[in-house]
What does this fold into?
Amino acid sequence: MHESAIAKSILEIVSQRLHSIGAPATAHNVSVVFGEFRNAEPESVEFAFDNMKAFYPGAANCQLVINTISAMAQCKRAQHKYHPEASNAYRCPTCDSGIGNLLQGEELDVVNVVVELDQTE
Ligand SMILES: [Zn+2]
It folds into this structure.
């Protein structure tokens, strides 16, 4: 499943981050930027994340924070910037030429992991 593969890779990044600290630590939350055109349901990724996080040491209580960013395209003919819509085959609403570049919308980036060192007694 696509969404669980995404959730798994996010958890692996969290694990690496915890491991790189070199001391017992807990991840509180992880912020992820998600492009509109990634073709993954944020809710499904969150569901998969919550189901798998207990298997990753230090991540059992980690919250996933998803920020979705909308897509932005530039048309082929005149480089107009617009929001591409499947309903008109992603064509430019100003001059009706095809999509030239997708400027944003395919992101899947872990932007921040908030961790805290475990208390030692
Ligand atoms: Zn155009």
